[in-house]
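Forum: Protein Structure Q&A
Topic: Joint prediction for protein chains with partners

I've read a bunch of threads here and the consensus seems to be that you should model interacting components together rather than docking separate models afterwards. I'd like to see that in practice. Below is the full input, 449 residues plus whatever partners are listed. Could one of the regulars post the assembled result?
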Amino acid sequence: MVRALSQFVRGAAIPRRRAIVSGVALGCICFANGCTLEDATAASTQLTATASALTNYYSALDTILVETGQLNALQEVMYGIPYDARTKGLIADTKAEIEKREALAKDLANLAQSFAKLTGSTSPADASASASNLQTEVASLKLAKIKMSDDEQNGMNTAVMLVVAAIQEHKEREAARGIGQFTGALHDFFVKEEPAYESINKDYVAVSSSLAKSMLQNGQTDPSGSFKIALDPYGLTPQVSDPKLRSGIEKLAEQEVDEKANSLNDAEIRAGADMDKCLKEMADRIGLVADEKPMKFRLAPITVANVEKWSSQFQTMASSAATAKAPAATTPSSKSPANSN
Amino acid sequence: MQSALQELETTYFTLQGQIGMLTAACTTDQQRSDLIAEYVAARSNYWNCVNKAFHDDDPQVVSLTAQLDSANTQLKTLVQQMGNISKVIDGITQAVTVGASLAAKVIS
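Posted by a regular:
Agreed with the consensus. Here's the joint model:
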């Protein structure tokens, strides 16, 4: 059965047909032991999908921290509030910690994929390297040591050491059990840190919405765009010159900023809760498969998609920011996008 | 009462949400300078504690968290009423000072 899990972890990364062919014979072993080929497939798929969602979740937080720094710099221009070296350093430290978690999630995804190689005729070098990387990432989580109790702190380390040792000794079933334990410890870790993730997003939303409202209140935005919805169907271009109309639309825009800020906070809270559920379910499923017990669910949990949906908006924002900056960096004399049209 | 981090967050976010109005209410350069210094300190207190932990059972942490909770309640009222800006800045200073003592207790 564990060989089936291994094969199907690899199956997630190679063409499906090859995975199915490889799994036919292994399915017999699986059925004989009480679990099915589908169980192993579902567990491996979820392991890969969840680790990927976790990577993207942390990547989104990383983008949020980058943009928080940029917003603090804007506050200096807007209000004369210095973006002091101490705060810059503290945000940089937090960002570095988030990047470690992102690297850990990536290593888990790599481990899930390379784990399959254990059952092949070649050496388990890739799986062993992935597990060792995971061990290094766990050791680097200095804040985790503070945040977690000794038992929780040791849980993740113990589990990853089990995975490393089991891989080195070709004990696939033990390695699968170790991955299940590691995922359970990772879930506990995530739950402990979730309030901090929520707070990082809340700060980003608070600073950005405050700046947006100040710009509106000081008449430093162009409200014409709000009328596009009414004028676009008729090919007309808004040109707001009436001060009363301008004031009215600015008030409406302030309300919209508040509503959007609330929805951004709610969306992150939901994404965090969904990520929590994904990790828990992944730990349970891997545990069932490692124990050769039947598994009820076949598809990756829908909560994975919710997390991906939330994090994707920050991938878009990051690439938009990079695109916006690129012309200025490479061609200083070129016109701004607004002027070039 | 909220957690220590949440209380530090409340101080900083309360100032953050009204910073435009607060700076506009300052009538002297000194008031403006004091306000900005307190804001920077509140932000620093907050970032010093994000993703870190407190010894929740430390009596000093418990006491400072309670004090900050009380100072935050007063701060919110002062900022909402936006009366005498000197009094508002005094209230801000009080909350930020307690916040600094609490932030110093974070495990580093």
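The radius of gyration of chain B is 14 Å.
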